[in-house]
Amino acid sequence: MRHIIAVLLENEAGALSRVAGLFSARGYNIESLTVAPTDDPTLSRMTLVTTGNDDVVEQIKKQLNKLIDTVKLLDLSEGPHIEREMMMIKVRAERQDREEIKRLTEIFRAKIIDVTDTSYVIELTGASKKLDAFIGAVPEGLIVEVVRSGPTGISRGEKGLTV
Amino acid sequence: MALSEAQSVGAEPGRPERSGVELSGAEIVVQALADEGVEFVFGYPGGAVLHIYDAVFRQESVKHILVRHEQGASHAADGYARATGKCGVCLVTSGPGATNAVTGIATAYMDSIPMVILTGQVPTPVIGSDAFQEVDTVGITRPCVKHNFLVKDVRDLAVTIRKAFYIATSGRPGPVVVDIPKDVTDPNIKIPYDYPRDVKMRSYNPVLKGHPGQIRKAVDLILEAKRPVFYTGGGVVLGEASGQLTDLVRATGFPVTSTLMGLGAYPMTDPQFIGMLGMHGTYEANMAMHETDVLIAIGARFDDRVTGKIEHFCPHAKIIHVDVDPSSISKNVKVHVPIVGQVANVLADMLKLYRELAPRSEEQPVSDWWAKIAEWRGVDCLQYDRSSAAIKPQFAVETLYKVTGGDLYLTSDVGQHQMFAAQFYPFDKPRRWINSGGLGTMGFGLPAAMGVQLAFPDAQVACISGEASILMCIQELATCLQYGLPVKVILLNNGYMGMVRQWQEFFYESRYSNSYVDALPDFVKLAESFGHVGMRVDRPADLEAAMTEAFAMKNRLVFMDVIVDPTENVYPMIAAGKGHHEMHLAPSLSDRELA
Ligand SMILES: Cc1cc2nc3c(=O)[nH]c(=O)nc-3n(C[C@H](O)[C@H](O)[C@H](O)COP(=O)(O)OP(=O)(O)OC[C@H]3O[C@@H](n4cnc5c(N)ncnc54)[C@H](O)[C@@H]3O)c2cc1C
Ligand SMILES: Cc1ncc(C[n+]2csc(CCOP(=O)(O)OP(=O)(O)O)c2C)c(N)n1
Ligand SMILES: [Mg+2]
């Protein structure tokens, strides 16, 4: 099953490589990993998406918790939560394709953020599935470049993942 | 200082602390070690640590032991830690110094041994420029340490060293590397020194006490058990819980088996001890594992050399598992009652509750089960040919036991000799059997023995080894001479990498590919050339007298080249992919194979 796990880490040099190293050394799947500082400059927050059966995911969480730099960890998939990923996608946009793509952009509530005579850059934020759907909807052969941030997530309700 | 105390107490009290004085980074390193109560630092100098070596030279509280190879430093510190329960300490230079130490760091990591390794690094301004003797020590060691640090500012030095000791010795112990760039130890930059007594880390809070509800569940299971077994491991030794284990085992009257790493935590000569389990465990221990209905795992990590094929592991059992590291629990085998906590605390709580709840009765508990175990014991799975004209390795270990009266610190290298020692030398105390189990590092034994002998100068210390293993750190004979360490090397010389040869005999139709150790040195002359006493024995009848003579030389290192039967194999043996009930027994018992 797919799990999205949020981790608060000490904002120390090397913390990221400890996590990456853990996944490669133990052969765990890692679909995406994003990390950035938080409002508290001593903490970074990492969101990672992994897949595995319950036992494997349990081990992944234990191993992450065991890292000395890990302050707190939450498996967002265990409760109601919101996931967002950001994508920028560059497409070829000429003649009748320009209108077609503009329409698509509106349907998906995306934004065109760069325009040339022959291309658009479109920005789209949403659940990863929505981003997949957008890519699927772009007519064959028009995609030049796709860049995705990897999902981040937050739990619903008033409780937060803080120290 | 016991490990459990280390968590709250901080630096050892009673040491002169030089608070407030101005010290350079190099002086801080050495003073911090003194404030930690470190007796010995095992090390080897080089460019990046010269400032530190100069500070070592100008003080007396920390004694530096000059090894002959950095692998020796890390194993010696490890041996010291295993024998004493204190933190072992190494000091090596950058680049090759650090890489040479890695094997010893990984060895300590796999067996959860508390160690702090100080490595020199190139100066901070040139890090990343492929400077002379630069390696990414933090990167190289990351997967084989509990934690590591790169100290970039002299003001962080003291607190980082304190954290390193705290992390290394608390929770599940392990090695911690502190990488120190040369400019951080600059003798001309002095700052006020204050050694922090306590560290608090919001990201690291090892569990001490077990959950009462879980302990209750465990005791309920124990009370219902018909065919129980205690399966104990290195965690009992590491957690100083030998006394608590012994009390609980005696109170319940249950059989107890141990992993290679836990030997001695429960007295091996006691009738309730049914031998080691696992690949080369006893018939009775492995059969008991196969038949048990309640398995009580204490400080053991369900290693594959212990479980055999997971599908066949304890097929009838409810499993209780006590471990300080949550990630050890249900990692390889799913357990029914997990208990996270320090083993000494949990065992004490379990015993208290057991005493409250257990019915008073005179008859022996689980007597049917003991009758079954007695049958298995009757197989006499460790039998060997006692009339052999060649010295059998088993006989050599038995003789060692006799000559030392069981009062010995025994370190080991890796191979058949290691297994024979585990099977034939019954240790009655923890921390007496010192070997590399998890990594299985040849070359461990001799340097580890140095660490033990330094810790206990008056104790009998021996290293059991093979002619292949011993050559991997033979240079440490010089260290032994320099510091007058009267270790007894018991070399079981079978002319082969016996353990490799055994696998080739069993699984590769006796194609002995590269397992014959050709061109061996004359070990007697070799020992003599290092300034020690060499002896060679090749007849069973001479062995006891020779060993007695060797151990009588209290102040000399004696290297005993014991020529043993080159064809002997270690039995019982569970081949890879087999279950506990599928042991190979010795040929003399093979008609009873697979009972
Ligand atoms: C040639 C060879 C053959 C071998 N054959 C065998 C064999 O036949 N049988 C065998 O048993 N082994 C054998 N081994 C050793 C094997 O590889 C493992 O090293 C060993 O089985 C692990 O022992 P352990 O489970 O006690 O774990 P250890 O590595 O000692 O781990 C200790 C466990 O206790 C926990 N712990 C630590 N401190 C505490 C504390 N204070 N409180 C609570 N828990 C704590 C740790 O988290 C860990 O889970 C062999 C090795 C070699 C090299
Ligand atoms: C550093 C290292 N290299 C290789 C091995 C694999 N290995 C395990 S046992 C063994 C043979 C050991 O031979 P010896 O020291 O003579 O001991 P014996 O088995 O003959 O008693 C080898 C090569 C190892 N454990 N460690
Ligand atoms: Mg050999």
TrEMBL record, chain A:
Gene3D superfamilies, per the entry: 3.30.70.260, ACT-like. Chain A, domain 2
E.C. numbers: 2.2.1.6
Keywords linked to the UniProt accession: Amino-acid biosynthesis, Branched-chain amino acid biosynthesis, Transferase
Single GO MF descriptor: acetolactate synthase activity
Reactions performed catalytically: 2 pyruvate + H(+) = (2S)-2-acetolactate + CO2
Residues annotated as domain ACT: 4-79
Stored Pfam families: ACT_AHAS_ss, ALS_ss_C
Coiled coil: none
Enzyme class: transferase
InterPro entries referenced in this protein's UniProt entry, alphabetically: Acetalactate_synth_ssu, Acetolactate_synth/TF_NikR_C, Acetolactate_synth_ssu_C, ACT-like_dom_sf, ACT_dom, AHAS_ACT, AHAS_small-like_ACT
Listed GO CC annotations: cytosol
Pathway the protein acts in: Amino-acid biosynthesis; L-valine biosynthesis; L-valine from pyruvate: step 1/4; Amino-acid biosynthesis; L-isoleucine biosynthesis; L-isoleucine from 2-oxobutanoate: step 1/4
One of the protein's GO biological processes: L-valine biosynthetic process
Task of the protein: Catalyzes the conversion of 2 pyruvate molecules into acetolactate in the first common step of the biosynthetic pathway of the branched-amino acids such as leucine, isoleucine, and valine.
Family, as annotated: Belongs to the acetolactate synthase small subunit family.
Quaternary structure and interacting proteins, as annotated: Dimer of large and small chains.
Name of protein: Acetolactate synthase small subunit
Highest classification ranks of the organism: Bacteria, Pseudomonadati, Pseudomonadota, Gammaproteobacteria, Chromatiales
UniProtKB/TrEMBL annotation, chain B:
Reactions this protein catalyses: 2 pyruvate + H(+) = (2S)-2-acetolactate + CO2
A single GO cellular-component term on record: acetolactate synthase complex
Cofactor stoichiometry and binding remark: Binds 1 thiamine pyrophosphate per subunit.
Required cofactor(s): thiamine diphosphate; Mg(2+)
GO molecular function: acetolactate synthase activity; flavin adenine dinucleotide binding; magnesium ion binding; thiamine pyrophosphate binding
Alphabetical list of InterPro entries matching this protein: Acetolactate_synth_lsu, AHAS_TPP, DHS-like_NAD/FAD-binding_dom, THDP-binding, Thiamin_PyroP_enz_cen_dom, Thiamin_PyroP_enz_TPP-bd_dom, TPP_enz, TPP_enzyme_TPP-bd
Gene Ontology biological process terms, A to Z: isoleucine biosynthetic process; L-valine biosynthetic process
Residue span, Thiamine pyrophosphate enzyme central domain: 215-349
Region span, Disordered: 1-20
Similarity comment: Belongs to the TPP enzyme family.
Protein name as annotated: Acetolactate synthase
Protein EC: 2.2.1.6
Pfam families (UniProt xref): TPP_enzyme_C, TPP_enzyme_M, TPP_enzyme_N
Lineage top rank: taxon: Bacteria
Associated pathway: Amino-acid biosynthesis; L-valine biosynthesis; L-valine from pyruvate: step 1/4; Amino-acid biosynthesis; L-isoleucine biosynthesis; L-isoleucine from 2-oxobutanoate: step 1/4
Thiamine pyrophosphate enzyme TPP-binding domain sequence ranges: 413-562
UniProt keywords, alphabetically: Amino-acid biosynthesis, Branched-chain amino acid biosynthesis, FAD, Flavoprotein, Magnesium, Metal-binding, Thiamine pyrophosphate, Transferase
